[in-house]
Amino acid sequence: MPILTPIEQILWLLGASVLLFAGLWLAQRRTGDAGIVDVGWSYGVALAAIIVALTSAGSVWHRVVIGTMIGLWGLRLGTHILTDRVLTGREDGRYQMAREKFGARFQPFMFVFYQVQALSVPLLALAPIAVAATARPTIGPLALTGIALYLGGVAGETVADAQLARFKKDPANRGRTCRAGLWRYSRHPNYFFEWLLWIAYALVASDSPLWWLALVPVAVMYLLLTRVTGIPPTEAQSLRSRGEDYRAYQRETSAFFPWFPRSKTSPASPAKDLP
After folding, report:
1. What is the DSSP-derived secondary structure letter of residue 185?
2. Max alpha carbon distance in the chain (Å)?
3. 21 contacts 37 by C-beta, under 8 angstroms
4. Global pTM value
5. Distances (CA, A) of 127 to 65, 154, 162, 211, 260
6. What is the C-alpha separation between 272 and 27, in angstroms, rounded?
7. Residue 107: domain span
8. CB of 132 within 8 A of CB of 49?
9. What is each CA distance from 181 to 26, 74, 148, 162, 164, in whole angstroms?
10. Of 250, 261, 256, 259, whose CA–CA distance to 192 is shortest?
11. Is residue 232 part of a domain?
């Protein structure tokens, strides 16, 4: 592949992402399942990272490592969402709620939502790799720590997804909240471990004098997961479907960072939530 400047990479990736997510928006109109956007986003970030790694100049080792890390993460996450949600014909509850909330305005809202996802793809794929490409050829201890953290993050996210899927398969758990395994210590352990992966990419890029730019995706992902597309709509849907059982779970369990569960509290005196 030809070597491209970061500006050229952004323009190509942005154009491709806008077209891809416009196509996904048209597809969800036909299928009635808006959750396909999550599959497209995961695969899109993975593919974009591989393209950036192949078309950048600079440290080959750093580019290949981060490109491979993001590529494998996106492939695993996208495949999990595809097989666990989309192919089952069961639309994610977050999008079901949005359909009810926006009514006739749902499709215009989703078009904007899909395009916001398209805009995030070049940023998340380019920032850590472009920074890492300017790194010194040596491999520092922080970069090795980043690789170890990545492996731990992927393992944690995979285990959390498997524990939740196993819980949901048992008909006896219908209407109940999963508190098994990692879900005992965090209401969203999958989101937490996903966020750790972006810290890992920043650590691999830490050999660069521009290392601080790799922290931008870390901050963006934290905001998305905890304030925008992650926890808020997921918890709203959980409260609607599981009611008081989930409210008790909120009172007892940390929202994001894993921590020991609090003692059971009464609905009238809820404990202050942890971040």
Report:
1. T
2. 63
3. yes
4. 0.91
5. 14, 20, 30, 10, 34
6. 42
7. 6-93+100-252
8. no
9. 39, 24, 22, 10, 9
10. 256
11. yes
Tens digit of each residue's pLDDT, the chain (275 residues) = 799 999 999 999 999 999 999 999 999 999 999 999 999 999 999 999 999 999 999 999 999 999 999 999 999 999 999 999 999 988 998 999 999 999 999 999 999 999 999 999 999 999 999 999 998 888 899 999 999 999 999 999 999 999 999 999 999 999 999 999 999 999 999 999 999 999 999 999 998 999 999 999 999 999 999 999 999 999 999 999 999 999 999 999 999 999 999 977 544 434 444 44
DSSP sequence for 124-151:
HHHHHHHHHTTS-SS--HHHHHHHHHHH
Q: Are 186 and 256 in contact (CB under 8 A)?
A: yes
Q: How far is CA 120 from CA 12, 14, 186, in A?
A: 14, 9, 26
Beta carbons within 8 Å of 14's beta carbon, 6+ residues apart: 118, 119, 122
**Residue 275 is assigned to a structural domain of this protein:** no
Burial label for 109, CB within 10 Å (0-12, 13-18, 19+), is middle
Instruction: Answer whether residue 266 is part of any domain.
Output: no
For residues 58 and 9, what is the distance between their CA atoms, to the nearest angstrom? Answer: 15
Q: Is residue 272 part of a domain?
A: no
Cα–Cα distances (Å) from 258 to 146, 191, 268, in that order, read 20, 11, 25
Crossing angle between the packed helical segments 189-204 and 141-169, to the nearest 10 degrees: 160
Question: Tokens 């590529």 map to which residue?
Answer: 71
Give the number of domains in the chain: 1
